[in-house]
Amino acid sequence: MKEGLPLFPDAASTWARDVDHLYFYLLGVSGFFALLICVLIVVFAIRYRRSKGHQAVQIPGNLPLELFWMGVPLVLALSMFAWGAKLFVEVSNPPAGATEIHVVGKQWMWKIQHRGGQREIDELHVPLGEPVRLVMISQDVIHSFFVPAFRLKRDVLPGRYSTTWFQATRPGTYHLFCAEYCGTKHSHMVGRVHVLEPAEYERWLASTPVLEGPVDAGHRLFEALRCDTCHSPTSGPRGPDLAGLYGRQVALAGGGTVLADEGYLRQSILDPHALVTEGFEPLMPSYAGQVDEDQVLQLIAYLKSLGAAPAGGSRR
Amino acid sequence: MSSRAEEHAVPLRVYVVVWLGLLVLTGATVACAQVDMGVLGTPIALAIAGLKGALVVLYFMHVRWSGALVWVFAGAGLVWLVILIGFTLSDYLTRDWVPVYG
Amino acid sequence: MTSQSPSPAPAVHARRENYLTAGYGVKSWLLTTDHKRIALLYLISITLFFMIGGFFAVLMRLELITPAGDLVKAETYNKLFTMHGVIMVFFFLIPSIPATLGNFLVPMMIGAKDLAFPRLNLLSWYLFVLGGVITLWAVISGGVDTGWTFYTPYSSVYANTHVIATALGIFIAGFSSILTGLNFIVTIHKMRAPGLRWSRLPLFIWAMYATSLVITLGTPVLAITIVLVALERLFQIGIFDPALGGDPVLFQHLFWFYSHPAVYIMVLPSMGVVSEIVAAFTRKRPFGYGFIAGSSLAIAVLGFLVWGHHMFVSGQSVYAGLVFSLLSYLVAIPSAVKVFNWTATLYKGSVSLQTPMLYALGFIGLFTIGGLTGLFLACMGLDVHVHDTYFVVAHFHYIMVGGAVMGYLGGIHYWWPKISGRLYPEFLAKLSALILFIGFNLTFFPQFVLGYLGMPRRYHAYADEFAVLNVMSTAGASILGAGYLLPLAYLLWSLKYSKAAEPNPWQATGLEWKTPSPPPKDNFEQTPVVTHESYDYLEGADVATEAQVV
Amino acid sequence: MSETGGPLAHQFADLAQQREASTLGMWTFLVTEVMFFGGLFAGYAVYRHAFPAEFMAGSRTLDVLLGSVNTVVLICSSLTVVLAVHCAQLGQTRAVNAWIVATMVLGAAFLAIKLVEYGHKWHENLVPGPGFLFEGANETPARLFFGFYFVMTGMHAVHMVVGIGLWAWVLARSMRGLVTPEHHSHVEIVGLYWHFVDIVWIFLFPLLYLLGAHE
Ligand code: HEA
Ligand code: HEA
Ligand code: CUA
Ligand SMILES: [Cu+2]
Q1: Is it the case that residue D17 has pLDDT exceeding 50?
Q2: A42-64: average pLDDT
Q3: Atom 1 (ligand 3): residue with closest C-alpha?
Q4: Interatomic CA distance for residues D203 and D41, integer angstroms
Q5: Given A92, A257, A291, B28, which residue has the most CB atoms within 10 angstroms?
Q6: Under an 8 A CB cutoff, do C257 and B84 touch?
């Protein structure tokens, strides 16, 4: 963060560099056309200014010329599309094994929970050089998670997870903004992102007090909410076994399958009748109203931790 | 335009036949709905509705005897409706396509 | 276009009966069905709304001089940009050219006595006023703070400001806009003078026709969307509320289905004006007439296929985003066609840089910059960064203020002699065009830089490093504001003190110049018969003597 | 379109031009109406796709019999409309009046039946809002179904009310002898409007009532 008159933002992620290259390409092309048009206008206006004895020459048009100046911009435009699309698809697909961080937006703060249970508000500590995947949800209206130095932005929706990822390339402290208008203090829903060297990051993790990791919290909730009455190896056929569920294709009662991602797990907890698993009765009650978004994320963290182990038993 | 429709006096018989056709089709769609046709149910219902709509537009609204302009306008309504619904659905139908890695 | 109607009456006849003197008193205005008088009613109303919207802009810019939110409270600032956007878009720019110049000129340019439905036209003005009054009531009694985009669930559940009243105002204004569009479509189809084939139509008519198509096809979707938001607030139906199973992103689809095409409602008319002005002030048939006319239609149609480019990071599916991005690039091509053809028209023309031409050239330059920055936004990878930053704000002000408003002012100056029967003071007019140009660029160019730096829009307080650029922007806005007051002053002044205008002060072609200034009540003494294509600036024809125009 | 007032308004060259203009005006207006309802159909499609089971369950609570009767009523009213137009072309004023009255009666019957249905839903607590209660399927998406049901049929009913009002206006003109074989475009354009409203119902009926009829 600088003072004075900066003209270009810091670039602190792999993706920021890619975006900047694309930006320069577009600047070049549009600079060329803007200049071309302006120069032509000025030159023509002076060269052909109205004067005695000078007459306009009527030129109705010129088909090859028309095709030319449709064709060239078209090709350039398509190149912009292709490049931009390629980058976008990349940012939409996080690499496997990325560190996962949960973000909950609410009017008007960012609540962050790390995998180890470290929690922060309006601050985000991330390690340098490691891919980080954000799983984000809002408790109220739409927000947007925006880190200019990473050139990264993603709307944070209520009722649905949105995800994005980045890999920081420069240690430092950067702005975190809310970019989608969300009410009175939208402009105060800001924070800071700290990119730390891996060693330093480990230190930070270690020195930050942890009450309870999300998996443990989720496990506790799982028992407190009596989920295990139906979902445990001993509960019989009442509810499906949840071990190894995450990432699997689930067959649905109505036909068809669905990928068990975070969104599916969330829906199964809050709105269980929407997608009923094949072979089971829609017995499960909805937990909407009993758990907030933070707790849903903890439950999901717990379910994900189950892996192939039998339900009910923590792997950790 | 409709002026042509007037020049072309439509015999009453045509109206009555179309009306009967509409009633029959109404019966047909209700009958079809009594049977579970799975995924085909809605397309069939919409096809019958489309047919009924076409009858009303062509005969009752005289488009059949109207000039090209009315055809274009009526067609534009349809095309833009398809744009609205089609492009909106293009989002909803493809949302699950992106694989999510863990 | 040459017509076989009797040769135009000489200027001395300016004193005789015209549409302004055809009746006196408030009633003769408020109950008029004359398209020219209705145009003036609109002119006055939208000028008022422009001042109000501009006033909010001035307050915003003042707040943004310093990074801290010190001048107004956050609540107030949020209401300021919302009401600025709502008023400028729905009550100024959308009706601007169609309802004033369009109303005035469409019948005249096609040789008709009036629009097809004059009473509907008057009704449209009353609806506009009603919608405006309701919105102003909402503004006065506390305002609304959702942003002009009314995103749900904020607007439908969380905002506790006057959302329903504002929505109602926009809904009613929408109907006013639909009626105008419908009227133009029917008029252009059915009321053209004998011999006026489509290929002979002035480009302004083509632009108005394309605009009307967009209005009639798009506005109803906005209407139903607004109704749904209001119903949602009243009855908690849940259509846009995730807490009730709905999807807030659906609102964005429906909103942008209208609001992206609406940006072409705002710019197409200005493009039409620019085509007329460029032809008149180069004394040339526009280069590529067919391409300019066709590109208006192409923009109107393609414009409906790109709305999702406002939603790249909204949670819309990646695949839908790809399609919308690609189509956004296609819609840039017809705009490019227009820009190149205008420029080519200057080539070997007889260019006269009078005020309307200055505005037209300003339009071409600024629209080009605005449009080219649209390419940055349509680029998915880049939009992730610049979405909802000042880059977007700069983009659309370049097109809407630098483009559309400049075109509007150019048109007002160009047809002012016809509308008022008076010439405007040329020197002052050129001066204020220059002031506006400078003020405009100073206001909005720094915002591109701010945007790429990452300053989010709708921020009442911002990070310190953005301060200098914001001060520049505010400085520019003061110049811009002052620049807008000048034309207001001298145009009013000219009504009383300026020289009377001849029927055709610019020696332009077009039916509107064949009738006296100001025109008689029924526009033409006799229905003109058109025998030539538009813009028959004959080679070797006598060149206008600039001395005729002060 | 009130512009068809006098025999020939001053802006037109002749009656043919005037008639063509008003017909084209009505068609343009109908296109805007298509888009207006189109927004609702798009929303319906999205949620129908998301919650097929709940939409089915919601649909099952609707009364197919009343819905079918209403469909027939509307189709009959479309017939009376074309008959009114037909008689207007032939200058049979009294028949025109009779068919218009018949149309209005059918329209009113439709609205009456609709009101009865709304009444049922009210008693069954199926009106979205604080008192909404739905057994059998997931309550939240089911509420969406009823939201669409009420908004779509409600908007349709509003159009019916407007249509009946327009017929009253045409009737008044006709009684004053203003409907003639040469000049009857207001009968025609109000007719176009009425047929359009009919078509909207033709689509609403299967989409709302018949989804779950087979269970
Ligand atoms: C009159 C108004 C107007 C016009 C005409 C346009 C025209 C265009 N707009 Fe703009 N736009 C707005 C008003 C307008 N816009 C507004 C108000 C918003 C913000 C709304 C909000 O969120 O509040 C917005 C936002 C907006 C976004 C969303 C940004 C975001 O929120 O993230 C996008 C994204 O694609 C976009 C793209 C475009 C494109 C591609 C064009 C194209 O039509 C431009 C085409 C023109 C040219 C390209 C220039 C001429 C061509 C040449 C000189 C030849 C060279 C060309 C090539 C090499 C291709 N606009
Ligand atoms: C037609 C459209 C239009 C027009 C003409 C304008 C004109 C102007 N706009 Fe606006 N603007 C929008 C449409 C428009 N805008 C929209 C749609 C938004 C988005 C809203 C949202 O986010 O929801 C927006 C948002 C917007 C913002 C971003 C706010 C934010 O995101 O926080 C800013 C900031 O600078 C701004 C500034 C200006 C300025 C300085 C002008 C100037 O051109 C105005 C100049 C006019 C005058 C100044 C009036 C005339 C003079 C007087 C009344 C006398 C008094 C003045 C002085 C003495 C100086 N506008
Ligand atoms: Cu949260 Cu803006
Ligand atoms: Cu757009």
Answers
A1: yes
A2: 85
A3: A143
A4: 10
A5: A92
A6: yes
Percentage of chain B modeled with pLDDT above 90:
54
Q: How far apart are CA C340 and CA C292, in angstroms?
A: 10
pLDDT the model gives residue C548: 33
Burial C80-95 (b: 16+ CB within 10 A, else e): bbbbbbbbbbbbbbbb
Structure tokens at D198: 């009919």
| Alpha-carbon C506 to chain mean position | 24
Contacts of B69 in chain C (CB under 8 A): 189
Which ligand neighbours the alpha carbon of A158 most closely? Answer: 3
- Which one, of D59, D41, D163, D198, lies nearest residue B22 by Cα? D198
pLDDT-derived band at D53, boundaries 50, 70, 90: confident
Give the up-direction half-sphere exposure of residue B80: CA atoms within 13 A in the CB hemisphere: 33
**Does position A60 have pLDDT exceeding 70, yes or no?**
yes
Give the nearest chain C residue to B94 (CA atoms).
C317
By the CB < 8 Å criterion, does B100 face chain A? yes
List all residues 6 or more positions away from C107 whose beta carbon is below 8 Å from its beta carbon.
Answer: C35, C113, C114, C115, C187, C191, C523, D11
CA-CA-CA-CA dihedral for C537, C538, C539, C540, to nearest 10: -110
Q: Is residue B97 less than 8 Å (CB to CB) from chain A?
A: no
Contact indicator for C390, C470 with CB cutoff of 8 Å: no
Alpha carbon A314 to its chain centroid, in Å, reads 29
- CA gap C253, D56 in Å, rounded: 25
**Which spans in chain A are helix H?**
14-47, 63-92, 198-207, 214-224, 262-270, 293-305
Whether a cis peptide bond, with omega within 30° of 0, leads into A108 is yes
Residue C161, phi then psi, degrees to nearest 5: -115, -170
Pairing relationship of beta strands A191-196 and A123-127 according to DSSP bridges = parallel
Strand ranges for D8-104 from DSSP E? none
pLDDT of residue A3: 58
> How far, in Å, CA of D105 to CA of D117, rounded?
18
CB atoms D2 and C119 under 8 Å: yes
Q: Considering only A189-203, B2-16, B67-81, D60-74, which range has the smallest mean pLDDT?
A: B2-16
Q: Given this model, what pLDDT does residue C549 score?
A: 31
Smallest Cα–Cα separation from A115: which of A96, A130, A134?
A134
Q: Which residues, 6 or more positions from C166, have their beta carbon under 8 angstroms from its beta carbon?
A: C86, C134, C135, C138, C144
pLDDT along chain C (550 residues), means of 10: 44 64 85 92 96 95 92 92 96 95 94 92 96 94 92 90 93 96 95 90 95 96 94 87 88 95 96 95 91 95 95 92 95 95 92 94 96 96 96 97 95 94 92 95 96 95 93 95 93 88 87 89 85 73 36
Chains with 3+ CB–CB pairs under 8 A to D are A, B, C
pLDDT for A251-273, tens place per residue? 887 677 788 888 888 888 888 87
Strand runs labelled E in D78-206 = none
C195 close to D (CB below 8 A): no
pLDDT tens across A120-142, in order? 999 999 999 999 999 999 999 99
Q: Do D19 and B34 touch (CB under 8 A)?
A: no
**Contact B80/D38 with Cβ under 8 angstroms?**
yes
Contact residues for A127 (Cβ-Cβ < 8 A; gap 6+): A99, A168, A195, A196, A197, A198, A201
Partnered with residue A132 across adjacent β-strands are: A99, A166
Residue A247 touches chain B, beta carbons under 8 Å: yes
Residue B36 has a pLDDT of 78
Say yes or no for a CB contact (<8 Å) between A274 and D138: yes
CA distance B40 to C180: 43
